[in-house]
Design goal:
- This protein is an alpha+beta fold and about 675 residues long.
- Among the domains are: about 100 residues, Rossmann fold, CATH 3.40.50.20; about 70 residues, Dna Ligase, domain 1; about 110 residues, ATP-grasp fold, B domain (D-amino Acid Aminotransferase, Chain A, domain 1, 2-Layer Sandwich), CATH 3.30.470.20; about 130 residues, Glycoprotein, Type 4 Pilin; about 70 residues, OB fold (Dihydrolipoamide Acetyltransferase, E2P) (Beta Barrel), CATH 2.40.50.100.
- The chain is about 30% helix and about 30% strand.
- It has 19 helices and 41 strands.
- The strands form ten sheets. A nine-stranded antiparallel β-sheet has the order 14-13-10-11-12-15-23-21-20, sandwiched between helices. An eight-stranded antiparallel barrel has the order 25-26-27-28-29-30-31-32. Strands 3-2-1-4-5 form a five-stranded parallel β-sheet.
- The longest helix has 26 residues.
Length: about 675
Amino acid sequence: MIKKILIANRGEIACRIIKTAKKLKIKTVSIYSDSDINAEHVLMSDESYYLGPSEASKSYLNISKIIEICKKAEVDAVHPGYGFLSENPNFVRELTKNKIIFIGPSENAIISMGDKIKSKMIAEKASVNVVPGFIGEINNVNHAKEISKKIGFPVIVKASAGGGGKGMRIVNSEEDVEEAFLRASSEAKNSFGDERLFVEKYLVEPRHIEIQIIADNYGNVVSLGERECSIQRRNQKVIEEAPSSFLDETLRRDMSTQAIMLAKEVEYSSAGTVEFIVDKDKNFYFLEMNTRLQVEHPVTEMITGLDLVNEMINVANNKKLSFSQKDIKLNGWAFESRIYAEDPYKGFLPSIGRLTKYSPPSEDKSIDYEIRNDTGVKEGDEISIFYDPMIAKLSTWGKDRKSAIKFMEKALDEFCISGLKNNLSFLSSIYLNPKFVDGEISTAFIEKEFKNGFKGLPIKQYKSLFEIIILTLSAENDIRDLNLKKFDKRTSVELFDFFDNKKYISDEYIVRLDNKMFEISKLDGNLYLLDKMYNKLRVHHQIDFQTNLININIYEDDQILLSTFLKLNYCFPYYQIDFRGSSVKGITRDSVNLELSKFMKKVDDEENKNSLICPMPGKLIELFVKVGDQIEVGQNLCIVEAMKMENTLQSSLKGQVKKINFKVNDLLKVDDIIIEF
């Protein structure tokens, strides 16, 4: 019987496993790198041990060190979570040698399914539908070109090992094969220690649907239904839901049957996920099997009522499944939103920094709804370049798809993060998209709906310009008032008289937004009268200065029109108000300051025009040019690795390289000048 578990992972998944272990009264042991010394999973566990430097290769991928800690801590078992060593057969082998239970499938199952080439061969043997392609290892670039032409473009070049969207490139023409091959193999080697690739047909705009299975050591395999994972960017999932609005009962049964057939073929035990792609005609094809707990497992737990970590521990304890297929009922609908440290306004470039504010919505559960937030961070934590950029997984459940979406909209409204860029506004914009609401989605959804990148939703979509205006104004008023009150406690009466509230704070404001002027009047307390064009409207608001979350109520003739939350960010001299995918900057001034602002000189910044600027924090892993080289527009200049992904930076101009300020393996910050022309 397992009494003590080491979690061979970090972040939210480590915290998630610890929560279930505590319920089962199982002691937990955490491990940590230099970057994670004060991490949440370390604080939550019963014991913790130092692992090594921040680089994953020297810490969370260090098998011998983890085994050493297991022995020292005298643990019975190891739960790997997802990523890192979760699908590494060598890790399982070493644990078995040392009589430590691996909470997951057998070494053989991991080898069989972890190798995407071998897994496709096994799938064919088990009569599972597979994607057309070359089932074998690609030897070199020329081989990749040859195979790609035979299959027919578009194709996808994929790493044989690993997952998570790493080591994958879509190729639309022969000219793109070489670059795709090199980048995919490099990412695969760095992420999984295995640079082998294969090529298969790329299905345009399919659905990405996966079947969750759980199996014991006695041959029992049960399907826990499907998850729709079609909302992706850069082959990485962003939003998942369960069940899928696209599947009918027949298709659900057929996909589940094939997933179970595959699991039985490799004598699978523990939790696992069989991933399929489904075309518009509901033809489905095996993609891969993930022999671990999935990132998106919460939505399955919410619609089945099962705790998958609990079930994995039961299987590891050699228990039979306590339920059969007929016992599984899918109840309601659930969504998961992955909250990333990235800038959606700049092509989803990764963002690092300190979480100066981190205030998720309160977790809650009733017969009508559930709000759940899986996270491994807290306010004050640092998001580093060394690991995945995911901050949290926000999940909601409702009795149907429509209500689950509404609960998610509200939960995202109440989620406050400051200190670094994040994708909260982008997530809100997806849930408000009419096509998404109607279930008209595919893996190309983000690419199609945001062809020119994410710019935020237009305010007119909500008919709520007046709300944003008044909040910009009233927030300034309140912040000034609050700061002056604090100032009073630290200064003399004489100084405070100079900054007298009545003299300094006006009850009438002018708000400038997009060159339009609006007059706002304060009536009483937190009650405001909007501009003349909205003369019947009254606005009452309340600001939480801990989170910068604003609760606003709009009234017309004493009848409430709208009650919602907005987020305030102050970047002198502007206020930025975020509201469900929309973002507005505004300046509030009294009449005197407005007049004076007309004399402010505008500065045209031409600095760094002839430079390659680093758009993200990361590591410089390759340089393609040297000083003196002539360059052309669109030429590849260097590769920056950030949060496990490789990004190729290209030249935006024609010229000559004058200076290179960094060398390979140097760490880069945002706006660092890499190359000067």
